[in-house]
């Protein structure tokens, strides 16, 4: 279908489910066990309502957002997805860079350790110095490989390191397990995948490259040899957020990996609502980045997370599908749809500036009804 027929982010997945090769769609769409967390991630946003303000002049809307203490045009970023080359063999991650770097957008892009294109090529494709790229790290059992990777990313000029901490082992993703990851997939596979790795499921093949023995000590060690800000991606408890701040991390991503890891892990927006009062009382709502991802599909979802106190939000699958179906143009269209929804929803909410968003604009009474 022509790109003009796409009216919202959800529709990219609907089209992808009909058009992408079965095996690719299975890997992209799979989540854990009965996929309850996957569904609840989005559903939780649907339990939060707005309490809009009236009679505010909403002619000019400013979406400028501070992340890492720096100003960005918009409050969202592209979250990491492995293997963009499966769905878009010619473009891979590079065609996402082009959309992110477009001067109208300047959207930060998180690059997966398991990218199809090399990190060098992804960084080289950046045509706009104002665009940030963040490197997502899966920690290898061999720490020298990990150390080299971090140092390479820093040298190439990425702006932050996001260490994924919710994936000691891939979740039980049955849709994906039905297909074999073969040697031919390896060609479109991550640049870090050197040896012949075949397995049941794409996630299974990748899992051999992730260490089950990762602990807090490792995070502290990374700080010894990199100056990159470190963010832990996949934090799901208030005490772990606090611990991350205490050991000197620059932030966390509240995330359950899109429901792909532990099924029945709490939807991130519920963790955010629970955590924010504690974080505020400790001053961690100011100089500490509290990102969130999982199930964010609408401008209203973004605003709800920001009202609760998120620094910025990550979105992964819709951009992955947009890139697989329509390449750079598709990703730009997805950005454009989201920005338009944000402006419209802010107007109707009666706010003109991201900094005006606060919990008083929300009705959270339904949030904890399951
Ligand atoms: C992911 N995600 C992910 N996360 C990560 O830290 N490293 C990775 O390589 C990947 N790979 C990946 C592949 C695919 C196909 C998906 C759908 C997701 C998780 C991703 O960054 C994000 O946390 C979740 O997908 C939640 O966001 P959405 O998809 O609900 O917007």
TrEMBL record:
Active site: 257 (proton acceptor)
Highest rank taxon of the organism: Eukaryota
Example GO BP: lactate metabolic process
InterPro entries: Aldolase_TIM, Alpha-hydoxy_acid_DH_FMN, FMN-dep_DH, FMN_HAD, FMN_hydac_DH_AS, L-MDH/L-LDH_FMN-bd
Residues holding glyoxylate: 27, 138, 173, 255, 257, 260
PROSITE patterns xrefs: FMN_HYDROXY_ACID_DH_1 (PS00557), FMN_HYDROXY_ACID_DH_2 (PS51349)
Cofactor(s) the protein requires to work: FMN; heme b
Cited Pfam families: FMN_dh
One Gene Ontology term of the molecular function aspect: FMN binding
GO CC aspect terms: mitochondrial intermembrane space
Domain FMN hydroxy acid dehydrogenase stretches: 1-367
CDD domains for the chain: FCB2_FMN (cd02922)
Binding site for FMN: 80-82, 112, 136, 164, 233, 293-297
Keywords for the protein's UniProt record, in alphabetical order: Flavoprotein, FMN, Heme, Iron, Metal-binding, Mitochondrion, Oxidoreductase
Locations listed in the record: Mitochondrion intermembrane space
Enzyme nomenclature, EC number: 1.1.2.3
Reaction equations catalysed: (S)-lactate + 2 Fe(III)-[cytochrome c] = 2 Fe(II)-[cytochrome c] + pyruvate + 2 H(+)
Family: Belongs to the FMN-dependent alpha-hydroxy acid dehydrogenase family.
Quaternary organization: Homotetramer.
Protein name: L-lactate dehydrogenase (cytochrome)
Naturally occurring in which organism (per UniProt): Maudiozyma barnettii
């Amino acid at each position: 279908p022509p790109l003009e027929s796409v009216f919202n982010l959800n529709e990219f997945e609907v089209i992808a489910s009909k058009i992408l090769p079965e095996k690719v769609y299975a890997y992209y769409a799979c989540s854990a066990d009965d996929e309850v967390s996957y569904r609840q991630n989005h559903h939780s946003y649907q339990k939060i309502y707005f309490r809009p303000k009236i009679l505010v002049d909403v002619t000019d809307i400013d979406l400028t957002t501070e992340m890492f203490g720096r100003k960005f045009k918009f409050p969202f970023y592209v979250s990491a997805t492995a293997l963009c080359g499966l769905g878009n063999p010619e473009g891979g991650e590079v065609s996402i860079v082009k959309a992110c770097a477009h001067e109208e957008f300047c959207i930060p892009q998180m690059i997966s350790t398991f990218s199809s294109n090399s990190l060098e090529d992804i960084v080289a494709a950046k045509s706009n110095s104002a665009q940030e790229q963040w490197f997502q790290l899966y920690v290898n059992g061999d720490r020298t490989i990990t150390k080299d990777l971090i140092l390479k990313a820093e040298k190439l000029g990425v702006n932050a390191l996001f260490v994924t901490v919710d994936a000691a082992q891939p979740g039980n993703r049955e849709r994906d397990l039905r297909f074999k990851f073969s040697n031919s997939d390896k060609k479109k596979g991550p640049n870090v995948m050197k040896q012949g790795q075949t397995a049941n499921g794409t996630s299974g093949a990748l899992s051999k490259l992730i260490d089950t023995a990762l602990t807090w000590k490792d995070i502290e060690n990374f700080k010894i040899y990199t100056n990159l800000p470190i963010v832990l991606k996949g934090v799901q408890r208030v005490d772990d957020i606090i611990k991350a701040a205490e050991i000197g991390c620059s932030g966390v991503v509240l995330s359950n990996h899109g429901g792909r890891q532990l099924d029945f892990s709490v939807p991130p927006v519920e963790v955010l609502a629970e955590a924010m009062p504690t974080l505020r009382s400790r001053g961690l709502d100011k100089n500490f980045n509290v990102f969130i991802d999982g199930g964010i599909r609408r401008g209203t979802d973004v605003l709800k997370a920001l009202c609760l106190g998120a620094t910025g939000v990550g979105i992964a699958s819709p951009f992955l599908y947009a890139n697989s179906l329509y390449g750079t143009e598709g990703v730009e269209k997805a950005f454009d749809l989201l920005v338009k929804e944000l402006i419209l929803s802010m107007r109707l909410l009666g706010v003109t500036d991201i900094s005006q968003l606060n919990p008083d604009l929300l009705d959270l009474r339904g949030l904890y009804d399951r």
